[in-house]
Amino acid sequence: MSSSLQAPSLRVPTIGLAGFGLVPALGGAAMAQEAAQPTAQLPELSIQGAAPSPYRADSAPMPRMPMTAAEMPQTVNIIPRVVMQEQAAATVRDALRNVTGISLAAGEGGFSGDNLTLRGFSARGDFYIDGIRDAGQYTRDSFFLESVEVLKGPSSVMFGRGSTGGVVNQTTRQPLATTQGEVWLSAYTPMGLRGTADVNVRAGEVAARVVAMGTRIDAAERDHVFNERWGVFPSITFGMGTPTTLTLSYLHQEERNMPDFGVPYFNGRPLQVSTNTFYGLNQTDRERTVTDVFTARLEHRFEEDVLIRNTFRVAGYSRELSATAPRLVQNTVARGITPDSLVNRQPQVRNGYDSLIVNQTEAVLGFDTWGLRHDVLAGVEFGRESSEITRFGQTGRPNASLLYPDFYQIGAINQTFTSDIKTVADTVAVYAVDRIRIGEMFEVILGGRYDVFSAEQDNRYTAQTFDRTDREFTWRAAFVFKPTSAIRTYVSAGTSFNPSAESLTLAANNANLAPETATTYELGGSWDVMDGLRLNGSVFRIEKRNARTSDPANATLQVLDGIVRVDGFEVSATGRITDDWNVMVGYTRLNSEIMESNNPAEVGREFANVAPNTVSLWSTYNLPMGFQIGGGLSFVDRRYGNTTNTVQAPSYTRLDAALAWEPDEGALRGMRFQLNALNLGDARTYETVYTGHVVPGTGRTFVASVAARF
């Protein structure tokens, strides 16, 4: 492709900015001052070559590593903002449908918000924002994100505790060097509206950006279920274009939802009732969350190969949940489902508050020794986390008709206080990773991290306390061979650890247990088949040889006698097939097995909530006159809801499609008109699975959007 670009004048466009009320006065004054200056005409530039595929975001540096995503010796999937917008993906959960090897999970057992398993292991506590832990229990919206990165395999050497199956890192929209903006408005069936705005202004060495969102969507074919959120993400960078930069950002998000705990199991399978059947209660069931995350990042580049940065974060997450977990009244279904069959509305009522204070200092260094090139990242991290949860019991929730539940049914509900627990945990860690380049064809990556993780739990209801301190070293090593510039292969190994207080909970049965540890072995590679299209593949094994299981001598305690293992492989392709055809496709196979357990019913069984096969596909094609068509699918195999494999959710295939138009000339230039069909085939999907219930996904949904960019 060949094009001639006329360099713009120094005037900064102001179209529409004042109308949104999002531009600070400082930015407006700076623009007026610049407009008063004489314009400078630059020579015409001629640029040859095709633009990179918008689906390829693997050239970005990885958090806590001295390399890019494409250079990582492990599987990394990245969903860029352009894909999320093409798919009308409003949440991180929506974006993760593009990643195979993931299963969504229900929020129960004291937890709510986003929850998932990654390569077979729970990743509820493995969400991050710009490389710093995002500990809250809430629905993560995509409005302020530039991309969602999924690093698969143990990553404790980078992120500390957890991360056995991998981590999910959310990369935020940071201030830019140019003045620009965009606004999106979307309408949903059966009823819903969503609006987002993103405005960036630069004035000299200062750039400011504000992203805002408001959403109210009714879940298609799930009666009475809705999600309502609003949020804002302002950020400002001082020292733009200089060796020293300071970036401040603040995320505030609030949500008000009708929680959906789906349907119970019957004979080991999801209860077969109408998809829209909902067992919650009006004016009783509710979910409220408030999320606040402030981050300050200071960076200074001393010279080309020396960078020092310090990141400080303070965050608070509050939540209030009153939900109905449906459970069958067994004596009413003993002879099968009848009009007299009943469901017990089991109350799930709790309030909570989580907080986080983290300071992380890192140095990124590049140097040569004895003919070897070293790229080193070393850091030290201090953090304090706390979690408070108050639980309540309820009586008086009336049983529901299994076939015809009454959402407006009234009961004499009586609520009692049952538990008040606070846990505080401190982390001190040092870590380093060295990438050693041996000529043009070979690399060795070595890394290590030492964590001191101390937790203390106080049950303020029973006056019972537990405390534990774990000291753990984790490592990773990899050997990379690049036979050509287009092919990169690797063999790697790494470890992770899961302390008893990993999710800031302790109990009498695990307070004296050392952490579980896991080791992963992975063989993989990538191949740039053509300009812009990359194939990736890997085979791997993750094994815990000291998994928690019940103590055969005392069933009230746990011991580290279990062995669990996941073997798998995956392949994917991302990028551009032709100038107009982009694709993102992947397949993962997981074989999970409980090898040894003190519960005989678990031995030889699969893990809970692990789909043996998952497939994802999204592709778009650019047509003449600015039109674009797109479509894809996600296949999730059957999953068990427990480790004894007695309850199971069936497999499903969800189809999505999109049609868009971006006029490239005339009065509508800069606009985008888009129509999405989500779950086009109206398949019965089961997006979240738990031991006692399974939550159906939404039915066929149409989304009409209009966007303006300036």
What can you see in these coordinates?
The protein is mainly beta. The protein has 5 helices and 39 strands. It has a 22-stranded antiparallel β-barrel. A 5-stranded mixed beta sheet has the order 3-9-10-7-8. A 4-stranded antiparallel beta sheet has the order 17-16-38-37, with no helix packed on it. The longest helix has 12 residues, at 25-36. Strand 37 and strand 38 form a beta hairpin. The model is unreliable at 1-49 (pLDDT under 50).
Outline the secondary-structure elements.
Elements: E1 2-5, H1 17-20, H2 25-36, E2 45-48, E3 76-80, H3 81-86, H4 92-95, E4 102-104, E5 116-118, E6 121-122, E7 127-129, E8 132-133, E9 145-152, H5 156-159, E10 166-172, E11 180-188, E12 192-203, E13 206-218, E14 226-238, E15 244-257, E16 263-266, E17 269-270, E18 286-303, E19 306-328, E20 342-369, E21 372-395, E22 400-401, E23 414-438, E24 442-459, E25 464-484, E26 487-498, E27 516-530, E28 533-551, E29 554-578, E30 581-596, E31 613-622, E32 627-636, E33 639-640, E34 648-649, E35 652-661, E36 671-678, E37 686-689, E38 693-696, E39 701-709
Parallel strand pairs: 7-10
Antiparallel strand pairs: 1-2, 3-9, 4-5, 5-6, 7-8, 9-10, 11-12, 11-39, 12-13, 13-14, 14-15, 15-18, 16-17, 16-38, 18-19, 19-20, 20-21, 20-22, 21-23, 23-24, 24-25, 25-26, 26-27, 27-28, 28-29, 29-30, 30-31, 31-32, 32-35, 33-34, 35-36, 36-39, 37-38
